[in-house]
Design goal:
The protein is an all-alpha fold. The chain has a domain at about 20-205. It has helices spanning about 1-15, 15-35, 45-70, 75-80, 90-105, 110-120, 120-130, 150-155, 165-200, 210-250, 255-260, 265-280, 285-300. Helix 3 (about 45-70) crosses helix 7 (about 120-130) and helix 6 (about 110-120) runs antiparallel to helix 9.
Length: about 300
């Protein structure tokens, strides 16, 4: 149990590195999922485009939402945004910083999925096979005399090797669309890299003090929330110990007699532990008082101006 507690404390103290690791694992998972995914184009004009583009768009949206779900700072951001002002004003720049930080991490896995999908080219072939100009590949007799509907039905079968008879045209069309898809993939990677470079390069051009301020207070909000939760847990644990101890003292006088037969050292240790639990109560010893503390913490956060100890 202690090992799990130490591990949990380590993850809490290194949350940023931990979240970066989670984003990296999600990126690898997205690539692995696509590699193990069996692509099967419907080869029907009415569904090819929807299936191909859907495979390119829907999974990245899911990965993006999953990135928000796995990020603990989402709840911190939501609480800070919705809380009453109370004695502490809300800083929009801090909220923007937290939101941008969460968004940047959540975009990693979707970007990997889109890149891998475009480089592979199967979804692009499925989506745009019906838009091909078959005459460009040197064999117009294949569609000669066909109506527009029959022509689209024939072109929709290009991604399906077993349904399209002309192997030469199919290979030429597949290579053509795959090249376009890979070109789009490289353009997408170039754009993402360029945007990341601009963000890194432009940020120091603005006031560094403002950036440090927003970064500091975003970390403060996260750490304050964790410490408040830990303090509540310690208080609840001590409250339960003292309450149960007093319950047994009041109910059974035999408990007092039982404790008197213990050694002096055990008695001293028990008194020290009880005194420690009493101190952790911090003077709050009633349910209504604790409810009031929790309510005030939510509705009226204390101002961030510490008093100097006299």
């Amino acid at each position: 149990m202690d090992k799990f507690r130490l591990m949990f404390q380590f993850l809490q103290s290194n949350q940023e590195s931990f979240m970066n690791g989670i984003c990296g694992i999600m990126a690898l998972a997205s690539a692995q999922m696509y590699a193990s995914f069996e692509f099967s184009c419907p080869c029907i004009p009415e569904y090819n485009y929807s299936y191909g583009i859907g495979l390119l768009v829907v999974p990245p949206i899911w990965f993006f939402m999953l990135g928000f779900v796995l990020n603990n700072n989402v709840s911190v951001l939501a609480e800070e945004w919705k809380r009453p002002t109370g004695g502490r004003r809300k800083d929009p720049s801090v909220l923007r910083y937290m939101f941008c930080s969460i968004t940047q991490r959540s975009l990693i896995a979707p970007a990997v999925w889109v890149s891998v999908t475009l480089m592979d080219g199967k979804s692009f072939l499925c989506a745009f096979s019906i838009s091909l100009d078959i005459e460009r590949f040197g064999n117009s007799s294949l569609i000669k005399g066909l109506s527009e509907t029959d022509k689209m039905k024939l072109l929709a079968k290009i991604p399906c090797e077993k349904l399209f008879d002309n192997k030469q045209i199919r290979e030429a069309a597949t290579k053509y669309i795959t090249c376009i898809s890979q070109a789009c993939g490289w353009i997408f990677l170039l754009m993402m890299t360029f945007i990341a470079f601009l963000i890194r390069a432009i940020r120091p051009c603005f006031t560094q003090a403002a950036f440090l301020k927003t970064k500091y207070w975003s970390h403060y909000i996260d750490i304050e929330r964790k410490l408040f939760d830990e303090t509540c847990k310690e208080h609840a644990k001590s409250f339960a110990k003292v309450c149960i101890h007093q319950y047994f003292e009041n109910i059974s006088g035999e408990m007092q007699h039982f404790h008197q037969h213990h050694s002096k050292d055990d008695s001293d240790n028990e008194d020290e532990n009880r005194k420690s639990d009493e101190e952790k109560l911090l003077g709050i010893r009633a349910q209504d008082d604790m409810n009031k503390v929790l309510w005030n913490w939510h509705t009226c956060k204390p101002a961030l101006a510490l008093k100097k100890d006299e």
